[in-house]
Each structure stands twice: as C-alpha cells, then as structure tokens.
C-alpha cells in the first residue's frame, strides 16, 4: 500500500469551549471572550456579535491566529494607545502556541484613566482568563479508514480496536461487518501492519480523508 503523506502538522493546540469573563479596573469593565474559529468569516461573525452585545463599549480589541501550518496573525488596538491592547492579546496566543483561536476584549469606560501600563495589564488579564475558561486542548491529525471484516476474524480485531483505543465512528452488521474508524497519523503504519498480520492479508483497510480530532482518552 502506498504511503499517504500527512496533510499538515501531526497536532496543534486550540481551545475547546467558549470562554467569557469580565475584569473590572477602576470601574472600567473589560469583557473578554475567547473561542475556536475555523475561518476569517467565523471571526468576523464573532466580532460582530461582541459589538452588538456591548454597543456602549468604546473599544473592541482583538487578536487571532488562524491556520495550522503558518498561522495568519492579526490584532487591533481599536483606538486604544498603540501596543496596549491588541498586542498583549496576540502575545497570549503565541506564548501558549494556540491557533484557530480568537480573543476579543470590549472595554466600557468607567470614568478613570488607567494609563498605558494599566490598560495593558487589564487587557492581558481579561484575555488570559478568557482563554482559561475556553480550555486549551490538543487536536491530533487522524487518518480515516473503512474496513470490511468477515465475522470469522471479528473477535480478535474488536479486542484489538479496544486495546488501541481507536476512535470508532460507525459499525454496520450485515453479511459482514463494516467499521469506520480513525487512527492517529503516527500510528497508521503500525495499524495497517497489525491488520495485515491479524487477518493473513484478508483485509485491506480503505483510506479516506484526514482530519484533526480532539482526543480525551
């Protein structure tokens, strides 16, 4: 069977949930939001939603990193003093090696100036807490396989699938067993060898697409 090249890096870090927090400094409210995004369009929709949710905010500061191999990075101070808002948020993403993630922090002025240092600290705290709420997670590149398995060899294979903790997407029981599962790219060669040896070459796993999956086990 010919070798299939990975479509990108073996893994990457992003966030699992939507993080929403609020930090108050001298009566100014810093409302932070962090979540996973897959496209520029998704980010723009997220930014529009934040602006609509907080129309009285004077600034909607943001940063994002989009893409796995060479991330597209962008940040904006949105009228705050240069370097006090967007850059600290982008730094949080880069130091945590997060991609496909956006952070937005909206500020509602409380009447007291914070100074450049105070602004930077407040935006950083709101961004960091939003990321913590969003829960960083690792996503691993997997190869999808479909196997057509005779009932005569199903028992040992079923046990092996469980032992290898493979992600089984679907099983159909017909005149044979059709199983769809995902294998980490780092384990593909060993998986194919195991299938061939366990079935004396009766089964040829059919490779499908690749995708990044979150694994908790």
How would you describe the overall organization of this protein?
- The protein has 217 residues and is of the alpha+beta class.
- The protein folds into 2 domains: 118 residues, 2-Layer Sandwich (Ribosomal Protein S5, domain 2), CATH 3.30.230.30; 77 residues, 2-Layer Sandwich (Alpha-Beta Plaits), CATH 3.30.70.
- The protein contains 5 helices and 10 strands.
- The strands form 2 sheets. Strands 1, 7, 8, 9 and 10 form a 5-stranded antiparallel beta sheet that branches. Strands 2-3-6-4-5 form a 5-stranded antiparallel beta sheet, with helices on both faces.
- A hairpin with a 2-residue loop joins strand 2 and strand 3.
- Helix 2 crosses helix 3.
- The longest helix has 20 residues.
How would you summarize this macromolecular structure in one to three sentences?
The chain is of the alpha+beta class and 217 residues long. The chain folds into two domains: 17-134, Ribosomal Protein S5, domain 2, CATH 3.30.230; 138-214, Alpha-Beta Plaits (2-Layer Sandwich), CATH 3.30.70.240.
Layout of strands and helices, then pairs:
Layout: E1 11-15, E2 19-25, E3 28-36, H1 40-53, E4 59-66, E5 72-76, H2 86-95, E6 101-108, H3 115-134, E7 136-149, H4 154-163, E8 167-173, E9 177-184, H5 188-198, E10 206-214
Antiparallel strand pairs: 1-7, 2-3, 3-6, 4-5, 4-6, 7-9, 7-10, 8-9
Helix pairs in contact: 2-3
* Helicity, as a percent range: 25-40%
Major β-sheet annotation: 5 strands, antiparallel
Please report the first level of CATH classification, the CATH class of the largest domain: Alpha Beta
Strand content: 35-45%
Shape: elongated
Compressed to H and E, one letter per element, the order equals EEEHEEHEHEHEEHE
The CATH architecture category of the largest domain equals: 2-Layer Sandwich
Global Rg: 23 Å
DSSP summary: helix tally: 5
Q: CATH topology of the largest domain, anyone?
A: Ribosomal Protein S5, domain 2
Average pLDDT works out at: 92
Please name the fourth-level CATH homologous superfamily of the largest domain: Impact, N-terminal domain
Low-confidence stretches: none
Tell me the domain tally: 2
Alpha-beta classification? alpha+beta
Alpha-carbon distance between the termini?
A: 29 Å
| Strand count | 10
């Amino acid at each position: 069977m010919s070798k299939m090249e990975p479509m990108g890096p073996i893994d990457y870090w992003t966030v699992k949930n939507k993080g929403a927090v609020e930090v108050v400094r001298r009566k100014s409210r810093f409302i932070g939001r962090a979540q996973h995004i897959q496209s520029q369009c998704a980010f723009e929709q997220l930014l529009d939603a934040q602006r609509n949710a907080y129309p009285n905010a004077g600034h909607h500061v943001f940063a994002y990193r989009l893409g796995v191999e060479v991330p597209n990075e962008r940040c904006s101070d949105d009228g705050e003093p240069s370097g006090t808002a967007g850059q600290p948020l982008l730094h949080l993403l880069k130091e945590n090696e997060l991609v496909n993630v956006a952070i937005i922090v909206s500020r509602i002025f409380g009447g007291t100036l914070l100074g450049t240092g105070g602004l930077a600290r407040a935006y950083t705290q709101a961004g960091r807490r939003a990321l913590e709420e969003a829960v960083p997670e690792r996503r691993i590149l997997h190869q999808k396989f479909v196997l057509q398995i005779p009932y005569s060899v199903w028992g040992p294979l079923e046990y092996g699938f469980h032992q290898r903790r493979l992600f089984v997407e679907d099983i159909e029981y017909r005149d044979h067993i059709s199983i769809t599962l995902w294998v980490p790219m780092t384990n593909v060669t060993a998986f194919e060898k195991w299938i061939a040896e366990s079935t004396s070459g009766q089964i040829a796993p059919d490779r499908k697409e690749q995708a990044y999956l979150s694994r908790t086990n």
